[in-house]
Write a structure and sequence with these properties.
Elements lengths: L5 E7 L7 E4 L3 E5 L6 H15 L3 H7 L3 H4 L8 E9 L2 E13 L2 E11 L8 E7 L2 E6 L4 E3 L20 H11 L1 E5 L15 E2 L13 H11 L1 H14 L3 E5 L2 E3 L2 E2 L2 E4 L6 E2 L5 H14 L6 E5 L7 H14 L4 E6 L2 H4 L7 E7 L2 E6 L14 H7 L7
Parallel strand pairs: 3-18, 3-19, 10-17, 17-18
Antiparallel strand pairs: 1-2, 1-4, 4-5, 5-6, 6-7, 7-8, 8-9, 11-14, 12-15, 13-14, 15-16, 19-20
Helix pairs in contact: 1-2, 1-4, 5-6, 6-7, 7-8
Length: 385
C-alpha cells in the first residue's frame, strides 16, 4: 500500500489548532518554540488512529474529556478533514466532527467520500449525521443503515464491515500510527533498554526500548541486511565501533554488548551513554521492517551530538520511503541537514498555531550563503519567540 499516503489534513478546534492546514509529504519535520502546537499535531494523528481502532471514547477520556482538548474560548467543536491518495484513483476524503454533549461528546458528522468517474457528486462510502448512519453496501450498490449494533461513541469508520474494501483500506492506514518520544525514553540503571531481554521474535525495538536487544538479535538471525545496515550506521556515527554481540544471561535471556576498538573489554548496555542508547534505539526503530503507515517521533534530537544529526536525517529520508514520517523538534541543528521541502515552521499568533512550509518562504537567495539552521537562528523562518 505504498501509494496510500495522507496528502493533507485540516484540524479545527483542537487545543491551539483553531484552523490548521498541513500538506503532508513522506517526511515532515515540524520546528517551532515551546507551546506552538507541534505536539498537538502529533496528538491529532494518535487520536485519529485510536478512533479508527474503536478507541475514541477511551482516548478522549484519558485526555480529561472533550472540553480539555477544545480550543479554549474560541471553538465549540472539533473537526478533522483529511485526504489520502489512492493508486490510479482520486483521493479518499474523510471528515469527522465532534461536539460536547453534557459531560460527554457526540459524533456530530462523519463522512468518507471519493470523486469517481461518471459521478457528478462525491461517491459516499460512509455518511453519518448524529444518529443517522449509512454505509455503502457494494452488494446492493446503495447506502443503507447498519444491521449490526452501532456504538454512538465510536466512529462509523471503526465499525465498518471489513469486506467493504475502500473503507477498510482507509481505516487500516489511518489506524496504523504510532507515537514515539525520544525525550520520554527511560534510560536509568533499571530501564528496560539496559536490562537483559528475552530471546524472542521481535522486529521492533518498542516505544521504551523494551524489545531493543530482542529485535537486534532477531534481525541478525533472520534479516542480515537490516542488521548490517544498523551496524554500518553505527560505524559511521562512532568510528571506533566494531560490532554488537549478544551474550546469553540465563535460559532464554540475553544481554547485548558493544565492541569498541578503544576498549579491551566489551561495553555492556548499562555502561553506554544516554545519547548512544537513544541513537541506537532511533536507528533500530527507523530500520524496522514493520514500520507502521504513519510514524510520529517527538524530539529525536534529545541528548544527541550535533554530528549525529546529519546521519539521523539521512536515516529519516530512507525510512520515509516505507512510512510517512512526522517529526516534532526544537533543534535548529537538526534542520541544518534537511531540505526546505521537508520542514514545516510553526509559530504562535494571538495564542493560536500558525503553520507554513519552509519551501513556501522566500529563502532561495538566503540559502546560497546560509543553511536552514542559520536562517532559523537569524529569525528568517519565523517560529521563534
Amino acid at each position: 500500500m505504498e501509494s496510500y499516503k495522507i496528502e493533507r489534513i485540516n484540524i479545527k478546534g483542537y487545543r491551539r489548532l483553531l484552523n490548521a492546514d498541513i500538506r503532508m509529504r513522506p517526511l515532515t519535520v515540524m520546528i517551532g518554540s515551546n507551546g506552538v502546537g507541534k505536539t498537538s499535531i502529533l496528538e491529532v494523528f494518535s487520536l485519529l488512529a485510536s478512533s479508527a481502532n474503536g478507541k475514541l471514547k477511551e482516548t478522549i477520556s484519558k485526555a480529561g474529556g472533550i472540553q480539555e482538548i477544545l480550543t479554549s474560548g474560541k471553538s465549540n467543536d472539533i473537526s478533522f478533514n483529511l485526504s489520502m491518495s489512492v493508486p490510479d484513483h482520486n483521493p479518499l476524503i474523510y471528515s469527522l466532527s465532534l461536539k460536547p454533549k453534557g459531560l460527554s461528546y457526540e459524533i456530530r458528522s462523519e463522512t468518507l467520500t471519493q470523486l469517481r468517474h461518471g459521478y457528478d457528486a462525491p461517491f459516499k462510502y460512509i455518511e453519518s449525521s448524529g444518529a443517522d448512519i449509512e454505509y455503502y453496501n457494494p452488494d446492493k450498490k446503495k447506502l443503507e443503515t447498519p444491521s449490526w449494533e452501532h456504538s454512538c461513541f465510536e466512529t462509523s469508520l471503526s465499525q465498518v464491515p471489513k469486506m467493504y474494501k475502500e473503507p477498510e483500506i482507509f481505516r487500516n492506514q489511518l489506524s496504523s500510527s504510532i507515537y514515539y518520544s525520544a525525550y520520554a525514553l527511560t534510560l536509568g540503571p533499571d530501564a528496560p533498554i539496559r536490562l537483559p531481554q528475552k530471546m524472542q521474535p521481535a522486529t521492533h525495538p518498542g516505544s521504551n526500548g523494551e524489545y531493543l536487544v530482542s529485535c537486534l538479535y532477531y534481525l541478525r538471525e533472520t534479516d542480515r541486511d537490516i542488521f548490517e545496515a544498523v551496524e554500518d550506521t553505527l560505524s559511521v556515527a562512532f568510528p571506533s565501533f566494531v560490532r554488537l554481540n549478544f551474550p546469553p544471561v540465563a535460559a532464554g535471556t540475553m544481554s547485548m554488548t558493544w565492541e569498541d576498538e578503544n576498549f579491551s573489554k566489551p561495553v555492556y548496555m548499562t555502561q553506554l551513554s544516554e545519547g548512544t542508547l537513544r541513537f541506537l534505539w532511533l536507528i533500530t526503530l527507523l530500520q524496522s521492517p514493520d514500520l507502521t503507515a504513519v510514524t510520529l517521533i517527538d524530539e529525536p534530537e534529545v541528548s544527541l551530538h550535533p554530528q549525529l544529526l546529519n546521519i539521523l536525517s539521512e536515516t529519516f529520508r530512507e525510512a520515509s520511503k516505507r512510512t510517512q514520517l512526522i517529526i516534532a523538534t526544537h533543534s535548529g541543528a537538526l534542520i541544518r541537514f534537511l531540505k526546505p521541502s521537508e520542514v514545516v515552521v510553526l509559530d504562535s499568533e494571538e495564542g493560536l498555531t500558525k503553520i507554513i512550509r519552509a519551501d513556501n518562504l522566500d529563502l532561495e537567495k538566503w540559502l546560497k550563503e546560509y543553511n536552514l539552521e542559520e536562517l532559523w537562528m537569524m529569525g528568517r523562518m519565523g517560529g521563534k519567540i
